[in-house]
Design a protein that fits this description.
Radius of gyration: 19 Å
Strand content: 15-25%
Structural class: alpha/beta
Strand order of the largest sheet: 3-2-1-4-5-6-10
Helix content: 25-40%
Number of helices: 10
Largest sheet: 7 strands, parallel
Amino acid sequence: MTILICGGAGYIGAHMVRHLLDAGKSVHVFDDFSTGHRQAVGNAPVTEGTLLSDADLDSVFSDVRIDAVMHFAAKALVAESVSDPFSYYQNNVIGTLNLLKAMRRHSVDRLVFSSTCAIFGVPTTPTIHEDHPVLPVNPYGASKMMCERMLADAATAYNLRSVALRYFNAAGASPDGCIGESHDPETHLIPNAILAALGRGPALKVSGRDYPTADGTCVRDFVHVDDLAQAHSQALAFITDREGAHAFNLGSERGASVLEVIEAVERVTGRLVPRADAPRRTGDPPSLVSDSRRAREILGWSPKYRELERIVETALRWHLAPAY
């Protein structure tokens, strides 16, 4: 089996590529390198192209015998999606539609899709189950919700087998420090806190201190990137002999506030995190914590990194000596 990894040079995609190669699988990376890094995919075969080009897609499906697809190629900044929503619908929705149509043209019927907890919007329960109402509050979440609807419709009309994996907050890095999180700009909390502590970045902005949470800052559920990669492998195995469109939440099932993350980074680095208060970011729900029982019970997913400090430790190892 050869698995096409769309967005395989990005943060999560690169960890997926490495996970599959370490398991002896055959992979092919498809990426436009707008945000990804060639160094991150090692010796994996690569086709440079964009999901917005039918010609690029037909080229890779014609040149390589593809058996299944994993799709990570998406724009994923909440604030940017609010200020520039059209680019999110163009890249995330139309790009995914183009991919699905190319898969159908080339008779590829299995897809694992990178979705997000942002589809749920502001939660009405302490933890979020798959059956929680889907009411996104920003264009990023709305774009992923639209993609999930397309997957469901494609399952009915064209027998596409798919799994949408709704990540909470991906974090951490490969434990050996060879690949990790490298965005420009960097918007994620853990790397920005680490960079501030190391003196390699500005003071960390604490965006909002008046949320209805225990300490007034946002609460998030952090899940290690290697645990996400494991879930993708299990999801692909799940649809080998199952029809339909399926969805699973992926998180640690433990919430940590912004201030608690800062404290964890300070404990791991042994340094203070310089910080400054800032206004709330548009589109940020107060709390997002997963209920991932379905993934554990049905996929057999068992995340290795349940403790926030272990996740921070792997991220720190990467940031001390980033390779790209």
